[in-house]
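Notes continue from the previous slide.

Worked example: a multi-chain complex. Inputs as given:
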Amino acid sequence: MDEVPEAAAPSGVGAPLFAHASEAELARILDYYGIEWQYEPTAFPILWNLDGDVVESFSPDYYLPEFDLYVELTTLKQSLVRKKNRKLRRLRELYPDIRVKLLYARDFRALMMKYGRLGLLDSLSGTEGQVTVVHDTAAPGDTAAAPGDTAAAPSRAPAGTPRSRMRRRHAAIAGESAGAR
Amino acid sequence: MRQPDLTDDVASVLITEEEIRTRVADLGRRISEDYEGKELTLVSVLKGSLPFMADLMRAITIPVAIDLMEVSSYGTATESSGLVRILKDLSSPIDGRDVLIVEDIIDTGLTLNYLVRYLRGKNPRSLRICTLVDKPARRLVDIPIDYRGFEIPDQFVIGYGLDYGEYYRNLPFIGVLKPEVYASP
């Protein structure tokens, strides 16, 4: 099996502190696919007081230079994202040339499902705080994790493996198999 | 022991067998016209695109070479280095050839973006993309798609090569998986 050099240099080296474990997980995914990213490189002012001082700004989580795209990830419940949506609308009004993609909790869940990591998603719920991304360089099966990094913790568990109901149903057909599309 | 019926896990049929057949034939016609007189290689990305590739190549009426690739996916058991790995590389050179990547589905675009970069490094004369299913709502990185079978809503689909946990690929249609199949126990 050939490892492709193009993807061999994770761009996020420098281990930023992530505000949420889900952000660290997304950084790992981007690293995995060789997508260069920067963490919160720009704070866009979106509100000023009468003196002209910035009173509110918006820093999208990632910037992907190759695509000139900002990505904001929120794992808040849909009912709680009103404030973030307002900030994003304001950002788009003030900076129409800036491309921003907002990933909601449902989008992140779909991503985890695609990669067979719904178990990890469960462990991320409610997890916040300082988290650093850890680039996987460990031996197969090992899971490197920074202290408190629940994003890296549990989950090489059967990737893509159907959950119990399906597992029971298909047990007669074949053994457990990992895999995504 | 009675074998489970895969269709029990399908909430609804999104694209019927007949609709797939018609669309694949249409794509085959267009590709045949566009690549008339060219040295076309179809590169199928395992495993999901197998049924599509098999049908599409038979709908193409010009001479084509075919090749297969497989790359690891994030989160799978094949992942160990933290980087994409080529699990199955091309078996023939593509330099100077017109290459068409044949995909089953494009959602985030991450795998495809990687493949495009990888294949461009092999100096094809041209490199274009054909996908049976496009799910733009999930797109993270934009990649121009030259041939698109169906654009689908943001639902988890299975069948005609598309899997959940390696199953359901053999369904002849594309359907929506019942949420209770992947819901936490």
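Summary box: The CA atoms of residues 60 and 71 of chain A lie 6 Å apart. The first strand of chain A starts at residue 2 and ends at 3.
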